[in-house]
C-alpha cells in the first residue's frame, strides 16, 4: 500500500540497498550474454573530492543513458572509479601531517610518506563514491577502479615505455606553469586567472651608441611591462616590422638598464603598434609568448628566478654571461630576494637612474594556482613531454570521419582549434604521489626507460659495457649481484601528470594491457558525458591514446554539457557565497527532485540556472504523481495480466493509450538524441497535464460510478498507464519510480531491469472495424481506422474527441483568467455554426464541459451573439457572451494599460542591449538576464494583444 506522504529519504536509502543487494547494475548478466553492450566510463572524480553540482549534472545524464539502455535490454557497463589526483591528495596528507605536528613529507622520506597517503586513501578517500550512490548512479560498483590500482599502473608504465620507444615521449627544456609554493609544474586546468588591480611600468631602454638622457626620447626606447622584476632576463626588444617609428632601429641594440647587457632590437609581428609604445621587452625564460619570439629569433633564454620564486643571480651562468665588468655586484645585491620584494627594489633603482618613465594603474588577469593560491610563474625547466602534435593527427581524423561525433556538434570546432594549435604536452610533475616515471639515469646522466628497474639495469649495463665505461666482467658481476650496482642508476623522482593515467581510462579499466574478455566486449565505449572545460585535457588525450594503442576511437559520441549556475546566471563560487550543495538539496527535497530539476534545464548548448525553488517545483511534481498513484490504488486500479490497451472500447481510454504511445515516442527519441531536457519535459507535461489533470479528472465519474465493463476497463487502463509512466520516468527519477513499481505493479522483478515501453502494435483496419467504441455515457461511436503502415498505436478519432474537450475547457479557463472573471462566476457558452460532429461531442460531454469550464449552459447558434467574445477551437468558433458579466470598457482600459507597461519594458531592455559598452562590459549573466526579460515582455505583450483583439469583438 502506498504511504500517505511522499518521503524521499526513506525511499532512497531503501532502494539503494535493494539495488546493491540484487546486483541490478552489474554488467555481464547471464541473461544478457548475447545482448548488445552499451558502455560508459565515468569521468573519474578526484579521490579527495566531494559531490558538487557539476558532478550531479554529469552523473545524472550518464545515469539516464545507462538506465534507459539497460531497460532496452542491452548489456550495460557503467564503469566507475576515482582519480588519484596527485597535487590535491598530496596536499591533503601534508596538511594532515602539519595539523598533527608530525614530521613533514621530506623529513619522513618518500616511502613512508606514500604509505601515509595510501593509509589516508583507505580510510577517507572515495567519499564521493558514496555520494554518487546517494544521487542514484547505477554504476557497476563491483568493478570500481582507481587510477593507481596495480593493473592501471601497469598500463601507465607500458604506455610510457612504448611511446618513448616510438619517439613520442622525450625530455626537453621548455616553459611550464610553475607553482612556487607547491614546487611543481601544473597543467593549464590547474591555473586560475584572477583579475588584479596592478600597475603598468614604462621603462626607458638606452639605445646603444647614444648618450642616454631621460629628456632625450631619441636616446632610448620605451617598453611597458607588468613584471619589471623579469627585465633582468630580457634578451631582446621587439617592434612590429611595419611600425615606421622603429624601422631604422631594427637590427641595432639597446643596453639593458641596471644589468648593462647588450640586447638586440628585433622585428616581430607579435608586437602591437596600437598598444603602449609599440615596443615590448622579450624575456624568453619568463613568458610563454616571449618564449616563442625567442625561438623565432634564436634568442638566449635567461632564467632569473629559482623554483621558489626568488631572484637567482649569483652563480647563474646564463645571467652572468656577457655582462660588463662590475655588473656581478648587482647580482650579489639582489640575489635570493623574493620576486615581489625584488620588483619594488628594481623599480626604485630604475627610477633612481632615470630609467622609469611613468607608472599607470592597470587591471589585468594574473595566473594563480587553483590549490596553492599563489601567482604562477612561467618557468624554464627540464620536463618530460608527449609529442602531442603527432598524436593529434589520428584524433582529428576520427572526428572528421564521423567515427566520433560531438553533441552539440559545434564543440567539434573547439576541439579542432585546440588540436590544430596543440603544443607539446608536459607530463612530469615534481610530486611524490602518482605514477613515478619509469626512467633511470646512469652516472653520466644517460636515460634508460624501461618497465622495471631490472630491465633498466640490463639496458644500462649493456650500454656502459659497449661504451667501455665498465668491463664485461664488471657488468656481469653487477648483473648477478645487486649489491654491487647500488647507486649505479637512479630513478627519476618525478611522477606523471594525472591526465596521463586518466587518458587510458576507457581501456585500462577493462584490464588492458592484458587481453581480457572485458576489453573485447566493452571497448570501444559508446557515449562519453563530460564538461566543455576538459575537452582538451581529457577528451582529446583519451582520443590520442585510444587510437594509438587500441586502433579505435574510445567512444562514438561525446556529449558536452555546460555549467550549472545560480538562479541569476552567475557562476557558482565560494567567494560569491552562491554555491548550492547537492547533498543539502538531496537532504531537503530528495535526489529525484534534484535530478529532474537539472535534467529539465539541461538544454544542449545552454548553461543551467538552478535555484532551490526550481528543485522544490520538481519535488512537487513527484508529490503530485505520488498522490495520483494513491488515487489509483484507492480506486482499485489494477492491471489484469491479460490486459491489452489496444482492445479498449471507451473513447477516453483509447485516448490515453494514444497519448501514452505519443509520449513514449517523444521520450525515447529525446534520450536517443541526447535532448535530455526535451525527454524530461515531455514526461513532465504528460504526467502533470495529460494523466493527472485530464485523464484522471475525466475518468472520475466512471471510477466512482456503478460497476460494469466501462469501470473495469478504466481501472485497468489507469493502472496500465501508470505502469508505463513509471517506466518512462525511471531514468530520470529512479527512486520514486522503483518504489511505486514495487507497491503498485504487483509483479516480481525490479523496475530497473524491466522492459522499456514498446510502442503498442497497431491493429489492422479489419480488426478495428469489428470493434465498437463507447462514449462517456455508453453510446456507440464509429470505429477508428488506423493505416496499416503506422508504426505505433494511434487513434485519431479518440484524440479528436477528447482533444476537443481538453482544448475547449482550456480556452475557456484561459479567457476567464485574462478577463479577471472570478472562478465562481458561471457563464454561458455558444457554439457557432457547429458541425454535426461537434454538436454530438458537445452533447456527449456536456456535463463534463460545464463542470470543468464553469459554464452555466452550452448552446448552439448559427452566428455568435452580440457582445460575445469569440475563440477558435480546433477550427470552429465558440462564443462567450460577456455583456453583463464584466465591464468590457473597463477591461479594455486595463489591458491597454498593461500593454503600455509591456512596451515600456521592451523599450527599456532594448536601450540596454543596443548599448555596445553595456554588452561588452556587463557580466555575461547580466546580459543574459536582460535578454530573458525582453523575451518575457514580448510573450506578455503577445497575450495582451490577443486578449484585446478578442475583447474588441465583444464591444
TrEMBL record:
A molecular function (GO) term: valine-tRNA ligase activity
Keywords for the protein's UniProt record, in alphabetical order: Aminoacyl-tRNA synthetase, ATP-binding, Coiled coil, Cytoplasm, Ligase, Nucleotide-binding, Protein biosynthesis
Residues of the Aminoacyl-tRNA synthetase class Ia domain: 16-611
Coiled-coil region: 885-912
Record: residues binding ATP: 574
The enzyme's E.C. designation: 6.1.1.9
Record's subcellular location: Cytoplasm
Annotated Methionyl/Valyl/Leucyl/Isoleucyl-tRNA synthetase anticodon-binding domain residues: 653-828
Top EC class for this record: ligase
Valyl-tRNA synthetase tRNA-binding arm domain sequence ranges: 887-952
SUBUNIT field: Monomer.
Domain notes: The C-terminal coiled-coil domain is crucial for aminoacylation activity.
Name of the protein described by the UniProt record: Valine--tRNA ligase
Amino acid at each position: 500500500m502506498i504511504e500517505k506522504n511522499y518521503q524521499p529519504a526513506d525511499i532512497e536509502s531503501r532502494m539503494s540497498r535493494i539495488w546493491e543487494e540484487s546486483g541490478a547494475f552489474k554488467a555481464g548478466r547471464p541473461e544478457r550474454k548475447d545482448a548488445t553492450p552499451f558502455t560508459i566510463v565515468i569521468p573519474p572524480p578526484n579521490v579527495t573530492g566531494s559531490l558538487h553540482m557539476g558532478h550531479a549534472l554529469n552523473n545524472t545524464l550518464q545515469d539516464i543513458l545507462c538506465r534507459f539502455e539497460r531497460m532496452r535490454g542491452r548489456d550495460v557497463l557503467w564503469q566507475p572509479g576515482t582519480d588519484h589526483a596527485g597535487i590535491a591528495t598530496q596536499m591533503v596528507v601534508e596538511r594532515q601531517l602539519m595539523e598533527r605536528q608530525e614530521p613533514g613529507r621530506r623529513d619522513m622520506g618518500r616511502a613512508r610518506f606514500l604509505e601515509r597517503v595510501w593509509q589516508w586513501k583507505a580510510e577517507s578517500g572515495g567519499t564521493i563514491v558514496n555520494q554518487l550512490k546517494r544521487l542514484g548512479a547505477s554504476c557497476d560498483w563491483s568493478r570500481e577502479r582507481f587510477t593507481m590500482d596495480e593493473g592501471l599502473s601497469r598500463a601507465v608504465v607500458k604506455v610510457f615505455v612504448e611511446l618513448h620507444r616510438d619517439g613520442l615521449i622525450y625530455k626537453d627544456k621548455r616553459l611550464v606553469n610553475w607553482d612556487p609554493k607547491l614546487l611543481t609544474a601544473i597543467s593549464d586546468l590547474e591555473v586560475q586567472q584572477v583579475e588584479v588591480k596592478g600597475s603598468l611600468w614604462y621603462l626607458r631602454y638606452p639605445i646603444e651608441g647614444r648618450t642616454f638622457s631621460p629628456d632625450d626620447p631619441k636616446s632610448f626606447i620605451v617598453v611597458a611591462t607588468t613584471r619589471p622584476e623579469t627585465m633582468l632576463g630580457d634578451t631582446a626588444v621587439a617592434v612590429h616590422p611595419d611600425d615606421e617609428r622603429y624601422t631604422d632601429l631594427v637590427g641595432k641594440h639597446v643596453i639593458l638598464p641596471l644589468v648593462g647587457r647588450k640586447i638586440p632590437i628585433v622585428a616581430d609581428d607579435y608586437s602591437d603598434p596600437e598598444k603602449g609604445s609599440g615596443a615590448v621587452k622579450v624575456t624568453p625564460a619568463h613568458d610563454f609568448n616571449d618564449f616563442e619570439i625567442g625561438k623565432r629569433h634564436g634568442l638566449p633564454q635567461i632564467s632569473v628566478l629559482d623554483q621558489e620564486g626568488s631572484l637567482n643571480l649569483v652563480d647563474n651562468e646564463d645571467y652572468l654571461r656577457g655582462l660588463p665588468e662590475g655588473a656581478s655586484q648587482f647580482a650579489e645585491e639582489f640575489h635570493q630576494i623574493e620576486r615581489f620584494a625584488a620588483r619594488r627594489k628594481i623599480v626604485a633603482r630604475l627610477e633612481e637612474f632615470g630609467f622609469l618613465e611613468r607608472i599607470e594603474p592597470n587591471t589585468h588577469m594574473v595566473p594563480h594556482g587553483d590549490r596553492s593560491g599563489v601567482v604562477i610563474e612561467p618557468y624554464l625547466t627540464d620536463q618530460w613531454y608527449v609529442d602531442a602534435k603527432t598524436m593529434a593527427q589520428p584524433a582529428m581524423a576520427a572526428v572528421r570521419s564521423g567515427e566520433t561525433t560531438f553533441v552539440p556538434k559545434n564543440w567539434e570546432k573547439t576541439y579542432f582549434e585546440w588540436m590544430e594549435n596543440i603544443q607539446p604536452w608536459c607530463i612530469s610533475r615534481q610530486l611524490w604521489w602518482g605514477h613515478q616515471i619509469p626512467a633511470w639515469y646512469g652516472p653520466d646522466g644517460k636515460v634508460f626507460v624501461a618497465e622495471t628497474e631490472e630491465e633498466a639495469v640490463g639496458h644500462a649495463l649493456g650500454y656502459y659495457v659497449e661504451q667501455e665505461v665498465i668491463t664485461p666482467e664488471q657488468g656481469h658481476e653487477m648483473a648477478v649481484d645487486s649489491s654491487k650496482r647500488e647507486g649505479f642508476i637512479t630513478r627519476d623522482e618525478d611522477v606523471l601528470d594525472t591526465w596521463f593515467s586518466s587518458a587510458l581510462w576507457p581501456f585500462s579499466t577493462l584490464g588492458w594491457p592484458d587481453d581480457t574478455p572485458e576489453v573485447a566486449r566493452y571497448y570501444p565505449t559508446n557515449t562519453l558525458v563530460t564538461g566543455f572545460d576538459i575537452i582538451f585535457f581529457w577528451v582529446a588525450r583519451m582520443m590520442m591514446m585510444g587510437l594509438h594503442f587500441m586502433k579505435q576511437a574510445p567512444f562514438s559520441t561525446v556529449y558536452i554539457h555546460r555549467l550549472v549556475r545560480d538562479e541569476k546566471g552567475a557562476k557558482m563560487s565560494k567567494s560569491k557565497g552562491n554555491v548550492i550543495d547537492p547533498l543539502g538539496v538531496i537532504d531537503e527535497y530528495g535526489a529525484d527532485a534534484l535530478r529532474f530539476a537539472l535534467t529539465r534545464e539541461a538544454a544542449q548548448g545552454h548553461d543551467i540556472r538552478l535555484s532551490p525553488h526550481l528543485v522544490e517545483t520538481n519535488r512537487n511534481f513527484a508529490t503530485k504523481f505520488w498522490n495520483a498513484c494513491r488515487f489509483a490504488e484507492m480506486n482499485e486500479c489494477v492491471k489484469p495480466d491479460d490486459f491489452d490497451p489496444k482492445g479498449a472500447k471507451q473513447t477516453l481510454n483509447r485516448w490515453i493509450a494514444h497519448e501514452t504511445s505519443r509520449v513514449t515516442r517523444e521520450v525515447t527519441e529525446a534520450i536517443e538524441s541526447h535532448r535530455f531536457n526535451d525527454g524530461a519535459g515531455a514526461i513532465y507535461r504528460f504526467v502533470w497535464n495529460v494523466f493527472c489533470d485530464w485523464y484522471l479528472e475525466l475518468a472520475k465519474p466512471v471510477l466512482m460510478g456503478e460497476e460494469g465493463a466501462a469501470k473495469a476497463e478504466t481501472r485497468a487502463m489507469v493502472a496500465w498507464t501508470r505502469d508505463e509512466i513509471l517506466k518512462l520516468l525511471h531514468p530520470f527519477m529512479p527512486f520514486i519510480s522503483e518504489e511505486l513499481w514495487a507497491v503498485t505493479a504487483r509483479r516480481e522483478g525490479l523496475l530497473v531491469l524491466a522492459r522499456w515501453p514498446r510502442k503498442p502494435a497497431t491493429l489492422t483496419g479489419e480488426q478495428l472495424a469489428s470493434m465498437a467504441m463507447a462514449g462517456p455515457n455508453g453510446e456507440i461511436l464509429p470505429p477508428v481506422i488506423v493505416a496499416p503502415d503506422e508504426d505505433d498505436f494511434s487513434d485519431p478519432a479518440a484524440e479528436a474527441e477528447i482533444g476537443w474537450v481538453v482544448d475547449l475547457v482550456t480556452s475557456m479557463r484561459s479567457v476567464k483568467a485574462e478577463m479577471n472573471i472570478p472562478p465562481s462566476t458561471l457563464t454561458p457558452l455558444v457554439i457557432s455554426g457547429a458541425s454535426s460532429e461537434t454538436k454530438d461531442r458537445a452533447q456527449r460531454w456536456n456535463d463534463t464541459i460545464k463542470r470543468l469550464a464553469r459554464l452555466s449552459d452550452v448552446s448552439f447558434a448559427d452566428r455568435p451573439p452580440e457582445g460575445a467574445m469569440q475563440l477558435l477551437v480546433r477550427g470552429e468558433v465558440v462564443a462567450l457572451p460577456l455583456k453583463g458579466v464584466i465591464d468590457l470598457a473597463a477591461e479594455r482600459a486595463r489591458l491597454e494599460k498593461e500593454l503600455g507597461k509591456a512596451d515600456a519594458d521592451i523599450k527599456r531592455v532594448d536601450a540596454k542591449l543596443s548599448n555596445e559598452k553595456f554588452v561588452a562590459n556587463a557580466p555575461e549573466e547580466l546580459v543574459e538576464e536582460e535578454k530573458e526579460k525582453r523575451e518575457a515582455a514580448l510573450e506578455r505583450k503577445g497575450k495582451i494583444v490577443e486578449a484585446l483583439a478578442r475583447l474588441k469583438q465583444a464591444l
